[in-house]
Amino acid sequence: xxxxxxxxxxxxxxxxxxxxxxxxxxxxxxxxxxxxxxxxxxxxxxxxxxxxxxxxxxxxxxxxxxxxxxxxxxxxxxxxxxxxxxxxxxxxxxxxxxxxxxxxxxxxxxxxxxxxxxxxxxxxxxxxxxxxxxxxxxxxxxxxxxxxxxxxxxxxxxxxxxxxxxxxxxxxxxxxxxxxxxxxxxxxxxxxxxxxxxxxxxxxxxxxxxxxxxxxxxxxxxxxxxxxxxxxxxxxxxxxxxxxxxxxxxxxxxxxxxxxxxxxxxxxxxxxxxxxxxxxxxxxxxxxxxxxxxxxxxxxxxxxxxxxxxxxxxx
Length: 315
Fold this sequence. Notes:
α5 (171-184) packs parallel to α6. The chain is α/β, with parallel strands linked by helices and 315 residues long. Residues 301-315 have low confidence and may be disordered. The protein contains nine helices and twelve strands. The two termini are 16 Å apart.
């Protein structure tokens, strides 16, 4: 199923106008420096990511502050390469709010990246963490309806296209996100295990407008159960050469082989490259933003996968 309408920065456009592949969960601009404290590298290096340190940073991705920050220039380089290789692509940027210094600056930077690289970018929005439930819901609903105001906007804001990503283990944010989703009917993107408590909060959700990414096999609510309710399922591509980490770290996606990924595409609705670290970038020897597209294209026609998860349009 494809959706009829995409909410881009300037407002909705017809899905028929987007002819290329869609990547539905990418952290194209982010600052994960708060994860530095989780590093298991005994040397605790803060070196730049460069050839002489590349192997070490891949093994200990949280050891380098440089590895934990993707800026506008990085995003532009990757987006330009995606356009060169795959044409009129669409990228849903779902960087968690805690990994953004400033939501307005991120939105403005991504608008510039989309224009210069000639790709489509859909921005996700999440509830503010330091607010009560009513303010969280009102903030998300307002930004979806009226846009995110930036200093560069004299006449209007930049419009988010979905709610997320939301860690399903964060029940406070999940509760607010589900309510904002119910009120606005905007698509909702969740990641991680779906507990029984999370499922109770999701009972008010519009399942055909929900996407669940990288749900592990240990999840109390299985992928099959989520699909049976009408939800869309997504997986990030296998970690590949850019993530050979010897440690577990927060928000690490499940490790999969390429064979597992191809098997999953028989079931999944959505895919992403899971780009988040500097070592994921093609400029630093990583698989790059187009990695998932290449894997899917190797085993499936692009037409066999839907574009995104909002089947009836309107958000």
